[in-house]
Amino acid sequence: MLKAERYEEGKNVKVFYDLKDPNESILEHGLKKFTFIIMFILAISLFFLRWIGISGMIRAILADI
Questions:
Q1: d(CA 57, CA 41)
Q2: What is the biggest distance separating any 2 CA atoms in the chain, rounded to whole angstroms?
Q3: Could you give the count of Cα atoms lying within 13 Å of 53 in the half-sphere of its Cβ?
Q4: CA gyration radius, the chain
Q5: What are residue 45's phi and psi, to 5 degrees?
């Protein structure tokens, strides 16, 4: 279902709001699947890059300059 269809004028929607400041509200909360997948891939990539010693290789290259 498209977002525009979900939030058509006149339809009831669930609204999440801050109890301390009801003027602050959102229609959706949480991470989207795409965001989570990108963050997971980035974390794994950084772990393996560090594991194979890329940072040491970069330091060695920069030391030669």
A1: 22
A2: 67
A3: 4
A4: 22
A5: -60, -45
Distance of alpha carbon 30 from the chain centroid: 9
Tens-digit pLDDT profile for residues 2-57: 666 777 888 888 889 889 998 998 888 777 788 889 999 999 988 887 767 777 77
The domain total for the chain is: 1
Beta strands in 2-57 (DSSP E): 16-17, 25-26
Q: Which regions of 1-65 does DSSP assign to beta strands (E)?
A: 16-17, 25-26
**pLDDT at position 1:** 54
In terms of residue numbers, what domain contains 28? Answer: 3-64
Cβ-contact 16, 26 below 8 angstroms: yes
